[in-house]
Amino acid sequence: AQRVTQPEKLLSVFKGAPVELKCNYSYSGSPELFWYVQYSRQRLQLLLRHISRESIKGFTADLNKGETSFHLKKPFAQEEDSAMYYCALSGGDNYGQNFVFGPGTRLSVLP
Amino acid sequence: ETGVTQSPTHLIKTRGQQVTLRCSSQSGHNTVSWYQQALGQGPQFIFQYYREEENGRGNFPPRFSGLQFPNYSSELNVNALELDDSALYLCASSSPTGMNTEAFFGQGTRLTVV
Fold it and tell me: Which residues pair with B64 in a beta bridge?
């Protein structure tokens, strides 16, 4: 069964500190992994996807198939990074639209 | 180019009633997916429509049904509402050209069943 876990419901860090949001998944095939973010009073939006190997707003995420993880990292957190972060998996079925989301981690960056 | 819009934004219904939620997809997008997000949880996939046909469904009972129209807008219908149906319902649209197509989400409809 497809499943995404995010062990931390809330993560608080100070501005300038490194941050790592953990994500683990279970999937029998070759999944596509994403991070979605929801800032206060805004809609859910894509932050980054593993296939693009990109860095967005200083965030990176590496897919580790051996550990079935896709942790999100940023070396120096900013206050504007405070938001709800969701890790999501797509099995590639049906044009990759069927996302399985984790429960989310609320990141709070303190001044 | 307009984004994904959902209506209404809030809705209160009584247990046993039926509800219809609406979604206008982003211009040029032919695929719409619906998600249910209960409080404190991540969104859960309900179903997806591609060119007016359902082509994917999550673990939801048949009383959750949908439609997609020729202009690619979509409706989510829920019959015989239960208290546990209270949630934020999200619509997402995309125009897939292959894997990893980005889905654009609406702001959601908050449904409360009393």
Answer: B78
